[in-house]
């Protein structure tokens, strides 16, 4: 009687075991097929100026399953986006079964201020978009200001009404005229001085600096040849193109 019961139990277990083994075999075959046919071999990165292609890859491809193109594409599509400093978003598309295309959309930053050892970067609307310990070489640092409000993802508020509009106007002109400016400094009288590769350029206190900054690129190139340490452009205008330069000792 006992033996008969044992045989019945074995007969009941056998189909269930076979089904489980069959499922495992199918999954194994599927993984092998995916790995053989959808192996990630190429990652094309475009739109990134602050990170190399390799740095972007290292930040995005972090799991073993990412080596399968389809798995990686699905993970990027449906999971939480990876946070990368100075990057607004990353769009991933599958070019073919072995190639992923990554398009990087960077945050537009025009200037930064320092606070407690960190640099806060703001965009063309004055919104603080990023905070890091690192200073970007191509972004001018603004000094000589007192802030009423300095919060990430909110607009900077300075002590004098209208002053920040002047800062934004100047940073836009710096970008437009492709000027190699390292820093912007305001004194107690709100007079503006720019620094470019060790040369200080005094622009004075004005509502608009369009004429001075439009001419500054050529002036800086000439100043470098003459080894100047400072340039006085306070009285520079369309009708008065005289500047005062001081040579290095």
Automatic annotation (TrEMBL):
The chain crosses the membrane at residues 21-40. The keyword Methyltransferase does not apply. One of its GO terms (biological process) is cell septum assembly. It holds the Pfam family FtsQ_DivIB_C. InterPro entries: Cell_div_FtsQ/DivIB_C, FtsQ. Keywords: Cell cycle, Cell division, Cell inner membrane, Cell membrane, Membrane, Transmembrane, Transmembrane helix. The keyword Flavoprotein does not apply. Residues 118-233 form the Cell division protein FtsQ/DivIB C-terminal domain. This is Cell division protein FtsQ/DivIB C-terminal domain-containing protein. It comes from Lachnoclostridium phytofermentans (strain ATCC 700394 / DSM 18823 / ISDg).
